[in-house]
Amino acid sequence: MMENRVFVITGAAGSGKTTVRDYLHDQYKMARVITHTTRPPRDYERDGVDYYFEDEHSFFENHFLESVHYAGQYYGSSYEGLENAWEKSPLATIVLDTAGAITYKEKLGEKAVIIFLQVGDTNELQRRMQGRGDNAEMVAKRVSSKEYNRDLEMPYELQGKAYKVVNHDWEQTRSQIDEIVEKYRG
Ligand SMILES: Nc1ncnc2c1ncn2[C@@H]1O[C@H](COP(=O)(O)OP(=O)(O)OP(=O)(O)O)[C@@H](O)[C@H]1O
Ligand SMILES: Nc1nc2c(ncn2[C@@H]2O[C@H](COP(=O)(O)O)[C@@H](O)[C@H]2O)c(=O)[nH]1
To answer: 0.95 cut: is pTM over it?
Structure first.
């Protein structure tokens, strides 16, 4: 029987975390762990699919495994969300900032497989955020936040404990992700 694992996709905003998470879902049928946020939805985002969108009161009624304040908004992931995902499939996947990824590694040990995505060129990151339709004001706020800048490099606490994938060319990224996943499929 395959052991329960959660593939934690982390890295800076715009580095491709959601793209990788969706690939893992489509290609390997990994269950997606939906997280909670007080951030307003983007035009294409749906409640219960992309996030559970909360207000500053309802957010704190959840039972979080970890939560963070990122670029002025709250984000958190619950134990229930992870357990629900594992009920669907032994391999689950979640998108977190690097602070969340560190907490997952500390709390879940080998059950958490951390993939840190990097895009070296910050102009390219901004182009990708604009390309998916983020408004210019949101992008400017994001790139000036300390959390975005912190997440451009793999944090010390994840070194030696996370896979690093440079997400420039998607075909190369996909093949590196496939290699990592194959290590954990029974
Ligand atoms: N290798 C790639 N080459 C070009 N564009 C890419 C690549 N990977 C992802 N993208 C595109 O970049 C944009 C940002 O990707 P994505 O939304 O997955 O990033 P993210 O890390 O989840 O961002 P955020 O944390 O802000 O939600 C999307 O439009 C996506 O299609
Ligand atoms: N630690 C956590 N980080 C989370 C969670 N849900 C999302 N995120 C990360 O927040 C930033 C911003 O996300 P965005 O959708 O507004 O661009 C990004 O790094 C996400 O990965 C969570 O529950 N915990």
So the answer is: yes
